[in-house]
Specification:
Blueprint: E1 3-6, H1 13-22, E2 31-34, H2 45-58, E3 63-65, H3 69-78, H4 92-100, H5 109-122, H6 125-133, E4 137-139, E5 144-146, H7 161-166, H8 170-175, E6 181-183, E7 203-205, E8 208-210, E9 221-226, E10 230-234, E11 240-244, H9 251-264
Parallel strand pairs: 1-2, 2-3, 5-6, 6-8
Antiparallel strand pairs: 1-9, 4-5, 7-8, 9-10, 10-11
């Protein structure tokens, strides 16, 4: 029984399909977790959302998708609470254009309401409802799973939604020593140097595990398997890579591996 954790997808549908095909996952016993940010920036956001929605619907006990800050921004835009999703840099304009088949044009105040109504009409209602139902965290025997991080090292149930969706807390990255916590949101290239594994590697330091390996033409989409620490990655050019991480694993995570081994061998 394993858990496969996929980092921020951001509309990279072809890479997502390639990655899922790469995973040696038993759908009846292994869990698949998406850390959120399915949308924005990439070339096929609707395809990503529909595929993950279908996977969750077909096997809700074994496929879990968390809400990312980009899904939250989209919901806040649809609900008229915030226009942050339309800010330059979020990639929301690409998602808007893919669903509406219309470029985002905002020249007057009235254009914001027109854009909101058009988008709400064009994005399938079941996808919007899917986003509303997404949990902010998941926990299993191996680890905690959140989109962004924890609030002052607290358990996710005691952390604020703002922290789970948005935090970029250096103290968490450098000092967290609780139950292993797997997170996305912040590309590993922007995390502390000590803890980064390789040029496109994930981040492991004490009990914090970051697997958002970035978004550009050369960045992989990454999936980490627990507790064996196999890393699966696919690239925009169709290439893929698999790495077994055996070094620099903190003691807290080694203990997790030992416990899992005992469970599998029936000794506990």
């Amino acid at each position: 029984m394993k858990t496969f954790v996929v980092g921020d997808i951001h509309g990279r549908c072809a890479q997502l399909h390639h990655l899922l095909d790469l995973l040696p996952r038993d759908e009846s016993t292994d869990t698949l977790i998406f850390l959120g940010d399915l949308i924005d920036r990439g070339s096929d956001v609707p395809g990503c959302v529909e595929h993950v929605l279908s996977l969750c619907g077909a096997n809700p006990e074994r496929v879990i998708c968390l809400r990312g800050n980009h899904e939250q921004m989209l919901l806040d835009f649809v609900d008229g609470k915030s226009l942050t999703w339309l800010d330059a840099g979020t990639g929301g304009d690409r998602t808007f254009a893919q669903y509406t088949q219309t470029p985002l044009r905002l020249q007057t105040e009235a254009d914001f309401d027109i854009a909101r109504n058009l988008f709400a009409d064009k994005m399938p209602a079941n996808q919007i409802e899917f986003f509303r139902q997404l949990p902010l965290y998941h926990e299993d025997d191996f680890a905690l799973y959140v989109h962004a991080g924890l609030e002052q090292g607290k358990h996710p149930r005691d952390s604020s939604p703002q922290a789970l969706l948005w935090t970029r807390d250096m103290e968490f990255y450098k000092s967290y020593r609780g139950k292993p916590c797997v997170f996305g949101h912040t590309p590993t290239a922007f995390l502390p140097l000590r803890g980064r594994l390789g040029h496109h590697g994930i981040y492991i330091f004490h009990s914090a595990i970051g697997i958002d390996t970035g978004y550009n033409l050369h960045s992989p989409l990454s999936c980490l398997s627990l507790p064996d620490f196999m890393l699966y990655q696919t690239y925009a050019d169709g290439q893929s890579a698999t790495h077994h991480i055996t070094s620099l694993i903190p003691e807290t995570l080694k203990e997790m591996q030992r416990r899992a081994e005992l469970i599998w061998t029936g000794l506990t």
